[in-house]
């Protein structure tokens, strides 16, 4: 049952060193405030899962939180490379980062399989791609009905998933609107979950088919207004494309990056960071 | 070849760049009513230009889950709020890939790439060796399955010897395989659900199509003012031309105007630091 906690308490209680952690959100609703709190609490040796590692994972990797990354597209959308991710993969700085690389279709299926309590995801994927040669988790099975060879990958089952959403009601039910990505699947696939929200309201006013996470499927809720910035929250604030563009120069240099993190993440109060 | 509506300047544009030539030519490849799964960057620009000119009923799908979207400005990321605000419906990412793409609803997958080879294989993963890469690129994203589950694939990429290589370092997304035959011997069930692969490559110099027998990319049309030598020099294999390559038609003044307006709107939008909330 969802417990309302401060962001500090929610992360302290639910995200541990060595955990398999997913912070999801497909461009939209990226849980920056929660990720920054994980960095401030100096979590180490995390296996990070995320379809599209962007600025937030660049920051977490650059600050040494991760030892492994499972992903399907790692870049700064529309801008270029993630320099901290590349530095970790190419130069092992600040630490060696093992990568396990998928396609979006496979990752999306792996989330769905995790939510469904299945051990594996099956898809007509990776046809002719070299990805199965470099990722031992991409295997194949024969369909027992048609004999067709299909790709199979393990379900995503993180220790904890962290997502951001528009709002929770006072009972702890959560509404997600707009580009909903894999948020619902990622929360249901995880053993524990932390949801940050823009606000708490009396009623979600959800339409019958809305994407709602019931309170009893969530471990903790923390109120974090602006918690997805510089990504965006549909209905609340827009994506700070200027910040995404500026990030390229900040992350390119190790010292500039460190200083930026010191000024904008490490020394600020929870929930008010850039 | 623009929409021919009254009031549009359908005369040939006097003044356009090679990139504009590429974008307009790519937009013309999309016929009206096509369902197109759009990659970010150049394909997104061309697909929206098509929608704003000759193909108003083209259905654009982005991997973020936005179905039949009509953005007023080009998205910087694949999941910009603009795509959701102007979509018929927004579905989850698993639904997008499983039902709409794998389910066989996509006519054209429109992709960009970092590298392409003789057999139209696409590399967006890395340059060099996988464990010790010279350059690490973003990776596959949606492309590996867009390349095989769409009925056909258009590829848009600027021509250079670094991008057009004999053999890609890594096949992220299948063209026709390392021998050109990878789509020929599939299990019948797989073949039934697998598209024809890349049928058209649009560059800033020319159009290329796979040879019907070998699937090697050959030059079928040359853009105005471009020489064969330029294409040969910018291609990393000994590129072949069809017997009588066509001359790619020039863009119309209307198409160039609509493209420039779209890009100007986009630039103004993305420069704004305090945009209004997407609602």
Structure write-up:
- The complex is a heterodimer of chains A (274) and B (279).
- Chain A is α/β, with parallel strands linked by helices and 274 residues long.
- Helices cover 30% and strands 23% of the residues of chain A.
- Chain A contains 9 helices and 13 strands.
- Chain A has helices at 7-14, 32-40, 55-62, 83-91, 104-115, 131-134, 183-189, 241-252, 254-266, and strands at 3-4, 20-23, 46-49, 66-71, 98-101, 120-123, 139-142, 149-154, 160-169, 174-176, 192-201, 211-213, 220-223.
- In chain A, strand 4 (66-71), helix 4 (83-91) and strand 5 form a beta-alpha-beta unit.
- In chain B, helix 1 packs across helix 2.
- In chain B, the strands form 4 sheets. Chain B has an 8-stranded mixed β-sheet with strand order 2-1-5-10-12-13-14-15, sandwiched between helices. Chain B has a 3-stranded mixed β-sheet with strand order 7-6-11, with no helix packed on it.
- Chain B contains 8 helices and 15 strands.
- At the A-B interface, helix 4, helix 5 and helix 8 of A face helix 3, helix 4 and helix 5 of B.
Topology:
The complex is a heterodimer of chains A (274) and B (279).
Chain A: E1 3-4, H1 7-14, E2 20-23, H2 32-40, E3 46-49, H3 55-62, E4 66-71, H4 83-91, E5 98-101, H5 104-115, E6 120-123, H6 131-134, E7 139-142, E8 149-154, E9 160-169, E10 174-176, H7 183-189, E11 192-201, E12 211-213, E13 220-223, H8 241-252, H9 254-266
Helix pairs in contact in A: 1-2, 2-3, 3-4, 5-7
Chain B: H1 18-29, E1 35-38, H2 42-52, E2 59-61, E3 66-69, H3 81-85, E4 87-90, H4 93-101, E5 108-112, E6 115-117, E7 122-123, E8 126-128, E9 133-136, H5 143-149, E10 152-156, E11 164-165, H6 188-192, E12 198-202, E13 206-210, E14 217-222, H7 228-233, E15 240-247, H8 253-271
Parallel strand pairs in B: 1-2, 1-5, 5-10, 6-11, 10-12, 14-15
Antiparallel strand pairs in B: 3-4, 6-7, 8-9, 12-13, 13-14
């Amino acid at each position: 049952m969802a417990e309302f906690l401060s962001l500090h308490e929610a992360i302290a209680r639910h995200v541990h060193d060595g955990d398999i952690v997913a912070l999801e959100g497909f461009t939209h609703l990226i849980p920056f405030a929660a990720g920054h709190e994980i960095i401030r609490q100096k979590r180490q040796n995390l296996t990070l899962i995320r379809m599209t590692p962007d600025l937030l994972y660049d920051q977490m990797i650059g600050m040494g939180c991760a030892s492994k990354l499972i992903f399907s597209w790692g870049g700064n959308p529309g801008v270029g490379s993630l320099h901290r991710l590349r530095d970790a993969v190419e130069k092992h700085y600040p630490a060696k980062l093992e990568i396990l690389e998928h396609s979006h279709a496979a990752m999306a299926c792996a989330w769905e399989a995790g939510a469904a309590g299945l051990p594996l995801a099956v898809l007509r994927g990776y046809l002719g791609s070299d990805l199965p040669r470099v990722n031992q988790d991409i295997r194949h099975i024969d369909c027992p009905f048609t004999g067709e060879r299909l790709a199979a990958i393990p379900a995503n089952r993180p220790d904890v998933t962290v997502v951001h959403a528009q709002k929770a009601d006072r009972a702890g039910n959560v509404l997600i609107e707009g580009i909903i990505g894999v948020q619902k699947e990622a929360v249901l696939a995880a053993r524990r979950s932390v949801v940050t929200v823009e606000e708490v309201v009396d009623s979600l006013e959800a339409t019958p088919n809305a994407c709602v996470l019931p309170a009893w499927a969530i471990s903790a809720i923390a109120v974090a207004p602006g918690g997805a910035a510089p990504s965006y929250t549909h209905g609340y604030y827009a994506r700070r494309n200027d910040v995404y563009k500026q990030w390229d120069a900040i992350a390119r240099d190790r010292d500039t990056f460190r200083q930026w993190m010191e000024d904008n993440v490490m020394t600020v109060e929870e929930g008010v960071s850039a | 070849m623009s929409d021919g509506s009254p009031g549009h300047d359908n005369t040939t544009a006097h003044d356009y760049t090679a990139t504009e030539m590429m974008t307009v030519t790519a937009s013309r490849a999309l016929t009206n009513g096509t369902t197109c799964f759009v990659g970010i960057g150049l394909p997104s620009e061309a697909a929206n230009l098509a929608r704003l000119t000759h193909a108003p009923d083209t259905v654009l799908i982005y991997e973020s889950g936005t179905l039949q979207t009509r953005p007023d400005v080009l998205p910087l990321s694949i999941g910009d709020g603009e795509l959701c605000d102007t979509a018929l419906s927004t579905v989850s990412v698993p639904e997008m890939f499983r039902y709409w793409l794998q389910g066989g609803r996509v006519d054209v997958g429109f992709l960009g790439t970092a590298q392409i080879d003789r057999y139209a294989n696409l590399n967006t993963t890395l340059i060099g060796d996988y464990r010790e890469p010279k350059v690490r690129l973003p990776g596959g994203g949606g492309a590996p399955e867009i390349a095989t589950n769409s009925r056909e694939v258009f590829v848009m990429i600027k021509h250079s010897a670094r991008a057009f290589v004999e053999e890609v370092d890594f096949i992220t997304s299948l063209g026709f395989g390392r021998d050109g035959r990878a789509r020929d011997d599939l299990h019948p069930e797989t073949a039934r659900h697998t598209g024809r692969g890349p049928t058209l490559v649009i560059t800033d110099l020319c159009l290329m199509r796979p040879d019907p027998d070998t699937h090697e990319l050959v030059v079928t049309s040359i853009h105005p003012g471009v020489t064969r030598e330029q294409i040969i020099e910018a291609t990393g294999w000994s590129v072949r031309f069809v017997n009588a390559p066509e001359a790619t038609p020039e863009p119309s003044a209307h198409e160039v105007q609509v493209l420039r307006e779209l890009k100007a709107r986009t630039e103004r939008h993305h420069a704004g630091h305090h945009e209004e909330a997407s609602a």
